[in-house]
Amino acid sequence: MHSRTEVTAQDGLYEMNAGAEVLDSPRYNEDIAPTKVAERSWRSVHIAALWVGMAICVPTYTLGGVLTAYFGLSVGEALLTILLANIVVLIPLTLNAFPGTKYGIPFPVVLRSSFGILGSNVPCLVRAVVACGWFGIQTMFGGLAIHLFLGSIFPEWKALGGVGEVIGFFAFWALNLWVVIRGAESIKWLETLSAPLLLAVGVGLLAWAMPHVSLSELLAQPPKRPEGDGVASYFFAGLTAMVGFWATLSLNIPDFSRYARSQKDQIIGQVVGLPVTMFLFAALGVVMTAASASLVGETVADPVSLIGHIDSPVWVAIAMALIIIATLSTNTAANIVSPTNDFQNIAPKLINRTKAVLLTGLVGLLLMGHELLKKAGLITSDVSLESLYSNWLLGYSSLLGPIAGIMVVDYFLVRRQKLDLPSLYLDGGAYPAVNWAGFIALGVPVALTVLAMATGLLSWFYSYGWFTGSLLGGVLYYLCAGLKLGSLSGASKAAA
Predict the structure, then answer these.
(1) What is the DSSP letter of 42?
(2) Among the CATH numbers 1.20.1250.20, 3.40.1190.10, 1.10.4160.10, 1.10.10.10, which is that of 41-394?
(3) Closest by alpha carbon to 52, among 284, 242, 274, 319?
(4) Most buried of 70, 243, 317, 494 (most Cβ within 10 A)?
(5) Is the pTM of this model over 0.85?
(6) How far apart (Å, rounded) are the C-alpha atoms in residues 199 and 321?
């Protein structure tokens, strides 16, 4: 054990050798400690594979349908919106990845700079609950794929119906938790292996659908909005929702960039992996949904259900196996890693990675309890899973936007890319227990969002929630930092 903590730099990457005061601190454990430089082995190809693995999933497939059905856009407008949204979201994703790569620290520890050592738990838990909800939703899709896979091999399994889906849910739930408990290298291996398989699935589905659809007719379909209405308001509302799709990852991207070999690797990997994959797979969803009537006799917007209509048990089994891999690669990286770190941040000495993963699984299970009971035939309900996650897109982006803006402003403008690494793990160090600047900058946009939702006033603020929230949150934080709120000036001097 080192008697005192030492921080060293190597090619722009900082590494901490923890001394007794950090190792004994209640804010430290090995899982959220800074990664060693030797552990930062993810190249740009691994970062790109991570995004391919996360972007190719059932919700991405349905985005085009969401924009055309709920936001009144034409097919062409919807696809353009998806592409632009993912280019836009690259900005906070890339910027917020910087402290993770430079200092090797995860999202909750980065937040200790802008919200305080204890205050960081508030935005962490907001992020964690959203991730747990998405974990549950994706696990429902994975469970359905397992059910259809087993039904294609064992005909008697089909007779189980919804009960078979519930059994599939718990099997997929356990598989997800097992992968993350094994650690970051397990996730890296899974994403790198799954990326080429998932791309092959997309090509195969496209080859199946193309003879049954006319792209020119598809693009010529009129939008579902009142005739004569301009496109601008519909476009920006849809753009906000699509940015909200990855609003969560724009916050906790340090959870992954802490393993990147360099800033260049994380930037190239994200630029290559995210926008193109999202656009192409969403476009595939639009084409497949349009072709589904000719393929199976009815319009089906869910790829799992669509493939389940195929007559060949062999092809269904192969397709379902690949969808299981696709959903697993998305779920483990996008929806379990973040809450695992977030829950540890509450009490690092009491909650290790294994306990945090199990807690994530429990919360996700409870949030899906209603849907599971419905599938098991124990209750009846008209609430659909699809409408649930579609409505979330706009709602949670409004709440997470300010946090993204605060993080960027804190690291680049207030701290000027300099953090006091040991103090991020200590009580009474350079950073306050609660940084009120962060809470004011978060509280005002959230209050305006709630006001807009409750009264209809300032409806534009809610409709464009991620943009308005992130900009206002960032500006307020910079102003509050200038007023030295939350002991910000002392922390900045210590960091320098």
Answers:
(1) B
(2) 1.10.4160.10
(3) 274
(4) 243
(5) yes
(6) 14
Segment 110-114 long-range contacts (CB within 8 Å, at least 24 positions apart): 110/254, 110/407, 110/411, 111/403, 111/407, 112/27, 112/424, 112/431, 113/410, 113/411, 113/415, 113/419, 113/424, 113/431, 113/435, 113/491, 114/406, 114/407, 114/410, 114/411, 114/435, 114/437, 114/438, 114/477
Distance CA 60, CA 283 (A): 9
Residue pair 169/139 in contact by the 8 Å Cβ criterion? yes
Assigned token pair, 262:
């360099």
pLDDT in tens, 122-133: 999 988 988 888
For residue 495, pLDDT beyond 50: no
Pinpoint the alpha helices (H) of 410-435: none
Q: Which of 315, 278, 279 shows the shortest CA–CA distance to 295?
A: 315
pLDDT average, residue stretch 434-446:
94
Which of these, 289, 140, 314, lies nearest to 205 by C-alpha position? 289
Spans of all domains in the chain: 41-394
